[in-house]
Design a protein that fits this description.
This protein is 40% helix and 17% strand. The protein is of the alpha+beta class and 65 residues long.
Length: 65
């Protein structure tokens, strides 16, 4: 489960976190944790789609209230 760190706030910066994680994990699956209250980062729907398209091991989105 991966959430972007607070220092990545823009749509241009957020996917980089997931690319770095994909490279570190290798063939292990990951999921996007979109928990605004904890992470402090809002991930827009187009960015979620971009992450899923760019990172083949990203298999799920876990949205939080």
């Amino acid at each position: 489960m991966v959430a972007p760190p607070r220092d990545r706030q823009t749509d241009a910066e957020i996917p980089g976190c997931f690319h770095d994680t994909t490279n570190a994990l290798g063939y292990n699956n990951m999921l996007i944790c979109d928990f605004l209250l904890e992470a402090g980062v809002r991930i827009s729907p187009p960015i979620v789609l971009r992450i899923v398209a760019d990172c083949p091991t990203c298999v799920m989105l876990k949205p939080e209230d």
